[in-house]
Specification:
By secondary structure, the protein is mainly α. The protein has two domains: 98 residues, no CATH class; 56 residues. Helix content is 65%, strand content 0%. Helix 2 packs antiparallel against helix 3, helix 3 packs antiparallel against helix 4 and helix 6 packs antiparallel against helix 7.
């Protein structure tokens, strides 16, 4: 199937999503062992993304994006299944369509991450060096999100 990931039927409902076979063949690895390792990595990333829905601080979208990238190199069937998944598919398609995260989204991510870091550092952790390590890692995470995660293009 060569539908665009954003096709809609005549009633405005989203159709099943599939990538173009030519585009896919450029990404697919030839070696069967390599493809299997990519599929295993994608499955582990997907499992962590699903856990992230219930565990505060575990990022869902980056893990789902990693999963999609690994599935794209291993199996067209797994990749299309993930893009059509009701829970994670919209997040992945939105990131792909916009080519990044909006500034508002980045601010939300950093605010949530800051809250979790402060909670961990001052409520969960006792006084000591581990508290400072958590704070430093939190600052590094915020810098990474703001400066290194692509900012979405305006629509």
């Amino acid at each position: 199937m060569t539908n665009s990931p954003f096709n809609k039927d005549e009633n405005g409902r989203a159709q099943e999503i599939a990538i173009d076979n030519k585009e896919y063949e450029l990404q697919l690895k030839k070696n069967k062992l390599t493809r299997m390792l990519y599929a295993v990595g994608g499955s582990l990333s997907l499992a962590l993304a699903l856990v992230g829905f219930f565990v505060p601080g575990l990022p869902v979208t980056p893990l789902a994006l990693l999963s999609a990238a690994l599935f794209a190199k291993s199996s067209l069937k797994l990749y299309n299944w993930l893009l059509n998944n009701k829970l994670l598919g919209p997040r992945i398609r939105n990131y792909q369509r916009r080519k990044g995260v909006t500034r508002k989204g980045k601010m939300g991510i950093i605010a949530f991450m800051s809250g979790m870091v402060l909670l961990s550092a001052f409520v969960v952790m006792p006084e000591g060096i581990l508290r400072y390590i958590i704070l430093i890692l939190g600052v590094m995470g915020g810098i990474t999100v703001w400066f290194f995660v692509p900012t979405a293009k305006s629509e």
